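REVIEWER CHECKLIST
Item 1: Sequence provided? yes
Item 2: Single chain? yes
Item 3: Sequence as submitted:
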Amino acid sequence: MKKKRILVVAPHPDDETLGAGGTIAKLSDQGHKVYVLVVSGHLPPLYRRKDYEVTVKEAKRAFAVLGVADSRFLEIPATMVAREPVHVVNGKIGGVIQDIEPQIVLCPFPDRHIDHRAVFESVMVATRPVAAGRGIELLAAYEALSETHWNAPYIEPNFVPSWTVDITNQMKRKLDAVRCYKSQIPAFPGARSVEAVNALATFRGTQAGFAFGEAFHVIRMTG
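Item 4: Structure as written out by the authors:
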């Protein structure tokens, strides 16, 4: 099987692990090269710089657990992605896609978090089937615990999975990576707790006939 380049776009550190951590580990195990682009983070003016640095360290530990080949951080303040000029955000994400030339791109579903929606919009522009985008064979959106499931049903987009990845053999590593985010992951019954992550993976997996799964909505796929 030809090895591919995969880009996972995360609005914030931890979204990539919550939404696609098992898939990242599985693709890495198969010899594919997985990159993670983190667009935003806990930066001033709402947070302290040292808060952001803590999450970056946590992210890099999680990436090591999952087998991420390389990661990049754009350092846009959290909740303020939509305040950046649209062409600037599009250009930054598009520049990474032009540089990596991925065959697979996984992005956030446009859910309750304003940063998730803004990043989704920019990814949709940056992955158009022109230039480097012509080489993208699969573009899919992942769900993020809490934010995706807090959308107003039928008023806002509903996450309806059309592809489920069997992560049964990678589930332990996904949970280990989630635990790396000590500053971000709450105790049970928090919506992003380790127990909640395990429960969602169990639900998605058993929907598709295996123990643990990660669900995606396929946006575009070429043969």
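Item 5: Key structural point noted by reviewer: Residues 5-221 form a domain with the Rossmann fold fold (CATH 3.40.50.10320).
Item 6: Recommendation: ____
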